[in-house]
From TrEMBL:
Entry keyword set: FAD, Flavoprotein, Oxidoreductase, Pyridine nucleotide biosynthesis
NCBIfam families named in the record: nadB
Catalytic activity: L-aspartate + O2 = iminosuccinate + H2O2
Name listed for the protein in its UniProt record: L-aspartate oxidase
Residue span(s) of domain FAD-dependent oxidoreductase 2 FAD-binding: 1-367
Residue span, Fumarate reductase/succinate dehydrogenase flavoprotein-like C-terminal domain: 415-505
Gene3D superfamilies: FAD/NAD(P)-binding domain (3.50.50.60), Fumarate reductase/succinate dehydrogenase flavoprotein-like, C-terminal domain (1.20.58.100), Succinate dehydrogenase/fumarate reductase flavoprotein, catalytic domain (3.90.700.10)
E.C. number: 1.4.3.16
Metabolic or biological pathway, per its Swiss-Prot or TrEMBL entry: Cofactor biosynthesis; NAD(+) biosynthesis; iminoaspartate from L-aspartate (oxidase route): step 1/1
Keyword hit for Flavoprotein: yes
Principal EC category: oxidoreductase
UniProt similarity note: Belongs to the FAD-dependent oxidoreductase 2 family. NadB subfamily.
Length: 507
């Protein structure tokens, strides 16, 4: 399930010996992957080493990374990226050599990119081209997975819905969740509409273990113009010399961190929030006016195009930005083979909690994680089918769960209220009072939404968003310390004695 970098990588690998059905709820190329800008972190340049990339990733993760998972992703990464290049992904080059950029937290220039700032689109379309060539991969677009089919702790497929074809049961020998993140539970987010955490909710309902749900990464700089989509202004803009200024035009980052604009993402997000509060303003600004116009336009063509459409010339004007929810570090707990705790069910990419990111994701590490864990999931799923003697035997399932019918509910109103609540009470800065308030509100909304039987994705997504939000809030309440992207103003210190551990949830 899912057609981003993780889902398509899994499909391609599994299709070597198995027939694969890819179910995706929108068109094939509508997902977080397509919007990825900055690049992929990978050890391919002379002088860089796997050891350095592992160390940078572990440092960012602040004690909660799974070292074996980090080692697997980082050391498999170069092979997977080479493969992607063979499949036609064109990364930016100078004199026939890949260009490498350095991003905050990386000790070496190891970020490759495509068309300046459209890396995800290039990766996605290279994978789609291959998927379309393979006869034993079928793609069902605009098909919404509502739930997994499980019996006795074993997954046998999923229930899916299509506007014209209705509900279908899909029986599968192995099921892979590559359904991405859940940025949509926040009012401010870089994620597209599809990122409502459906896979996390489905896995939880099926009895899988979820882990680290309090660790939601906020991206410090998204374009902030009321009414406009929250378009990301990639980290590399700061890497190229972009300066953050407050409403008064003052550069503020050197006051907060020695690395100034290149400080870790969580530090930049928190600093921006403080400046917004101090200056009583809705946003801060990125200033790139000192960078030569030609360089700006060729390096950031997509950002130029979007800003132009709002009358902002990046070579002359300040770019208004503020933080927004960006990446779910937690998710469905998986092992080194991308297996979840439910038999025959796999998870990969952003939906999974592989242990790669710990408490803070290093920029550009997630496309790499999607490529590698997607590959691993596809490979293990396929190999285990070949080894197994078990036949796929469909069985009868109850048609109705016996839930009550829909009453007069304004689903959009509840969705918007939930997103505002999450932003206000479970966002960049958290404390017990606000988290308890969020818990109470979510419980109240849940009491009249969760027992309803809906007939289309609007209701199912809302149920999933309520479930995922409640897990984020409960985990954030539980973790009484600040670590990585989780910042509690009432517990500002990192507490390695009591909290150097994971928080897990299982139904
Ligand atoms: C604006 C932006 C910029 C980014 N920049 C970078 C970057 O430069 N480098 C980097 O490494 N990472 C970046 N990231 C993060 C990275 O893009 C994602 O973490 C990664 O692409 C996730 O891939 P995925 O395959 O796991 O999920 P996705 O690409 O999000 O795919 C999820 C898929 O699941 C499908 N799906 C979801 N629910 C259902 C359902 N119920 N039924 C059926 N299908 C469903 C969706 O339709 C979608 O196809 C960025 C993210 C964003 C949003």
């Amino acid at each position: 399930m899912g057609s981003g970098v993780a889902g398509l990588s899994a499909a391609i690998e599994a299709s070597k010996h198995c027939s694969v059905l890819v179910v995706t709820k929108d068109k094939i190329d509508e997902n977080n992957t397509v919007y990825a800008q900055g690049g992929i972190a990978v050890v391919l340049s002379a002088g860089d080493t796997i050891v350095k990339h592992i160390k940078d990733t572990l440092d960012a993760g602040q004690g909660l990374c799974d070292k074996a998972a980090v080692k697997t992703v980082v050391s498999e990464g170069p092979k997977r990226v080479h493969e992607l290049i063979e499949w036609g992904a064109a990364f930016d080059k100078e004199d026939d050599r890949l260009i490498f950029t350095q991003e905050g937290g990386h000790s070496f220039p190891r970020i490759i990119r495509a068309q300046g700032d459209s890396t995800g689109r290039e990766v996605e379309h290279a994978l789609i081209r291959l998927v379309k060539e393979y006869k034993n991969i079928t793609v069902l677009e605009h098909t919404f997975a509502t739930d997994l089919i499980t019996r006795d702790g074993i997954c046998h497929g999923a229930i899916v819905w299509h506007a014209k074809k209705g509900t279908t049961l899909i029986w599968a020998k192995r099921t892979i969740l590559a359904t991405g993140g859940c940025g949509q539970v926040y009012r401010e987010t870089t994620n597209p509409d599809v990122a409502t955490g459906d896979g996390l909710a489905m896995a939880y309902r099926a009895g899988a273990v979820l882990q680290d749900m309090e660790f939601v990464q906020f991206h410090p700089t998204t374009l902030y113009i009321a009414g406009a989509v929250r378009f990301l202004i990639t980290e590399t803009v700061r890497g190229e010399g972009g300066i953050l200024r407050n409403k008064r035009g003052e550069r503020f980052m050197p006051r907060y961190h020695q690395q100034a604009e290149l400080a870790p993402r969580d530090v930049v997000s928190q600093s921006i929030l403080k400046e917004m509060q101090k200056t009583d303003h809705t946003n801060v600004y990125i200033d790139v006016r000192h960078i030569p116009r030609e360089r700006l336009y060729t390096r950031f063509p997509k950002i130029k195009e979007i800003c132009d459409s709002f009358g902002i010339d990046i070579a002359k004007d300040l770019i208004p930005v503020r933080p927004s929810a960006h990446y779910m570090i937690g998710g469905i707990k998986t092992d080194q083979f991308s297996r979840t705790t439910v038999r025959q069910l796999y998870a990969c990419g952003e939906a999974a909690c592989t242990g790669m990111h710990g408490a803070n994701r290093l920029g550009s590490n997630s496309l790499l994680e999607g490529l590698v864990t997607g590959y691993t999931a596809g490979k293990d799923a396929c190999e285990s089918i070949q080894k197994s003697v078990r036949k796929l035997v469909p069985y009868t399932i109850r048609e109705s769960m016996g839930l009550s019918k829909i009453s007069w509910l304004d689903l959009n109103d509840i969705r918007n209220s939930l997103k505002s609540l999450m932003w206000r009470d479970a966002g960049i800065e958290r404390d017990e009072r606000h988290l308890l308030e969020a818990e109470e509100m979510i419980e109240m909304w849940g009491s009249y939404v969760m027992d309803k039987e809906f007939s289309n994705p609007t209701g199912w997504e809302l149920q999933n968003m309520i479930l995922v939000s409640s897990l984020i809030v409960s985990s954030a309440l539980k973790r009484k310390e600040s670590r990585g992207v989780h910042h509690r103003t009432d517990y500002p210190e990192t507490d390695n004695i009591r909290w150097k551990k994971h928080i897990t949830w299982v139904l």
